[in-house]
Amino acid sequence: MPGEYLVCTRARPGESPQPVAILHLEPLAREPLAPADWLHPVEQRTYDAQTRRTRQREFLHGRMLAKRGLAALGVATRAPEMAIQPGCFGQPLVAGDGLHGHGISISHAGPAWVGALAFREQVPMGLDIELISQRPGRALATRLTATEHALIANQGEWGATALWAAKEALAKLLRTGLSSPFPLFEVTGLTAMNGYCEVRFHFFPHLSAAVFHLGSAMLALAVPAAATVQADGYCYAFEALAAQLTSNGAGPAAPRCCTESR
């Protein structure tokens, strides 16, 4: 189901949770959106250059959701005055008045989901959504380490998709994409939490990913590992996000591959 979801800090005694990011999820729009309502002139040129109508819809819908998220975080700049442009690694960068210190991450999973995450730059994040299908499993088959094979043994495409989504989200947080050697993104831990799966990385112990089940897809958020940033107040309450996703009809939030692989 379409929705706006808060990613919050875990509350300290006597304090309320504070949102550090806003996640928007929707199916890809079937009805045409109005580009002039959402796109900066720079983005409009990229939109016009797309030769496929589906690609135009994905481009526009992702930016619409990202700008909604930025507005929900308190950015007052009008959507057409925000420019989301690719950096040297293709990572989305936001420019415009009042946007300093904010970042976004956008992901598409066929027509099923368009997702956009808006966050405060002091808490860098990455988002990826992957459809549960044979494609991620085949792509990963020759790239998994022995440790990763053991983690998802007998889990079929569920486990492979969870790993793929977590690695993609990590690569987006790092802003390099999967251009680095694939072993660098090795997963060494899958832990069942309350409504989601926590993924740990061998070469990035200071980072982690939370993976959620969206029915036909897996959603991963890569974040600084809470253990290293708790002193700054950034300990993430992903149980609350899992509850939001479940209550809004997005599907069961606990990935089967995680709950069966403790």
Structure description:
The chain has 262 residues and is an alpha+beta fold. The chain has a single domain (3-259), classed as Alpha-Beta Complex (Ribosomal Protein L22, Chain A). The protein contains 9 helices and 11 strands. It has helices at 35-38, 41-49, 53-72, 134-141, 146-151, 156-174, 226-229, 238-247, 256-259; strands at residues 3-8, 19-26, 83-86, 92-95, 102-109, 113-120, 126-131, 187-192, 197-201, 207-213, 217-224. The strands form 3 sheets. It has a 5-stranded antiparallel sheet. A 4-stranded antiparallel sheet has the order 1-2-6-5, with helices on both faces.
Short description:
The protein is α+β, with helices and mostly antiparallel strands and 262 residues long.
How do the strands line up in the largest sheet? 7-11-10-9-8
CATH class: Alpha Beta
CATH level-4 homologous superfamily: 4'-phosphopantetheinyl transferase domain
Bin the strand percentage.
25-35%
Radius of gyration: 18 Å
Q: Mean pLDDT, nearest integer?
A: 87
Number of strands: 11
* Straight-line N-to-C gap: 29 Å
Q: How would you classify the helix and strand content by structural class? A: alpha+beta
Measured as a percent range, the helix fraction is 25-40%
- Give the number of helices: 9
User: What profile does the largest beta sheet have?
Assistant: 5 strands, antiparallel
Oligomer: single chain
Please identify, by name, the CATH architecture: Alpha-Beta Complex
Q: Give start-end ranges of low-pLDDT stretches.
A: none
Order of helices and strands: EEHHHEEEEEHHHEEEEHHH
InterPro entries: 4-PPantetheinyl_Trfase_dom, 4-PPantetheinyl_Trfase_dom_sf
Domain 4'-phosphopantetheinyl transferase: 125-213
GO molecular function: holo-[acyl-carrier-protein] synthase activity; magnesium ion binding
Pfam families: ACPS
